[in-house]
Specification:
With about 300 residues, this protein is mainly alpha-helical. It has helices at about 1-15, 15-45, 60-70, 70-105, 105-120, 125-135, 140-150, 165-175, 180-190, 195-205, 210-220, 220-235, 240-245, 260-270, 275-300, and strands at about 45-50, 55. It has a two-stranded antiparallel ribbon with strand order 1-2.
Length: about 300
């Protein structure tokens, strides 16, 4: 029986040789740049490593320090979860709703609006625009407008005041986070066979919202799942925007510090790579748990 199974496996591999050859480049790069770094990070998280000397194995000391001795880490978790809870669902639903609306428009207008909505995610470093808008002096556009209207008497430090900076960064993140999910939703909507809507009309569907619930969403499960995965990865990977606009690990009272900023602080500023890897492993586990939760909620 074992010999028969081996022959059957060898036959299937020979038949799929071309497919395996096509997959090989992706698998090689995936293993080299994803699997191996993750395994290396897990291994280094149990060491004291300053990137200059040989890593020293210290067991669970980094994890003990993370959960018991690092009070700043609690702030990083809180800020990251605020981003996840607000930006994740809001940007996901908004991207789907706008894709659905734009898909109903004429082709030329649909193409134009698609470019407009996708542009922020590929426009590179746009933080200087928001820095100019919310500059803490009277030359900032928001401060200038509010002072002209008489709503404030002196400039507000929007990006350094813990009362305002996290809210502003969440708004900017929502503006930036529509790209990939939005495109996947547009592609999914374009791929639905129009005859299904005609059959639905015959079966009693009378309006657009019934079409959305009974035809559109069931046909877009794979795209909606992809969009959810991308949103989770994007939201939990927030760090660049908080560092550029709010200061990140240099912000007042760590008001805009996220887990990724915490990793950057210890990995590239303090050169405590073992501890940085420990934080990264925690973030990896957190992302995996949230993905499983989202899959369960979506029942996929």
């Amino acid at each position: 029986m074992a010999i028969k199974n081996e022959h059957s496996l060898g036959r299937r591999m020979r038949k799929g040789a071309v497919s395996y050859a096509m997959l090989a480049p992706f698998m090689i790069f995936f293993i080299l740049f994803t699997v191996l770094p993750v395994l290396a990070a897990i291994g280094l998280s149990f060491t004291n490593f300053n990137m200059l000397e040989t890593p020293e194995f210290i067991g669970l000391q980094n994890y003990q320090r993370l959960f018991v001795g690092d009070t700043v880490f609690i702030t990083a978790i809180k800020n990251t979860l605020i981003f996840a809870v607000i930006c994740g669902p809001v940007s996901y639903l908004f991207a789907f709703f706008m894709a659905w609306l734009i898909n109903e428009m004429p082709k030329q207008l649909r193409v134009l609006l698609t470019v407009i909505f996708y542009a922020p995610s590929v426009s590179g470093n746009v933080y200087f625009i928001w820095t100019y808008l919310f500059s803490g002096d009277s030359y900032g556009l928001v401060n200038g407008w509010l002072m002209q209207l008489g709503l404030i008497q002196q400039p507000v430090l929007w990006l350094t005041n813990p009362t305002y900076n996290l809210t502003i960064i969440i708004i900017v993140q929502l503006w930036l986070s529509l790209g990939v999910s939005f495109l996947s939703f547009i592609a999914g909507l374009q791929g639905i066979d129009p005859s299904q809507y005609e059959a639905g009309a015959i079966d009693g569907i009378r309006n657009r919202f019934q079409e959305l619930w009974y035809i559109t969403i069931p046909n877009m499960k794979s795209m909606m799942l992809f969009g959810a995965v991308m949103q989770i990865a994007t939201i939990f990977g927030v760090g660049d925007i908080t560092q550029n606009l709010g200061g990140g690990y240099n912000s007042v009272n760590y008001s805009t510090l996220t887990i990724l900023n915490h990793i950057t602080d210890y990995g590239t500023v303090r050169y405590e790579m073992g501890y940085a890897c420990c934080i990264a492993v925690f973030l990896f586990v957190l992302i995996v748990l949230f993905k499983k939760l989202v899959f369960r909620l979506l029942k996929w």
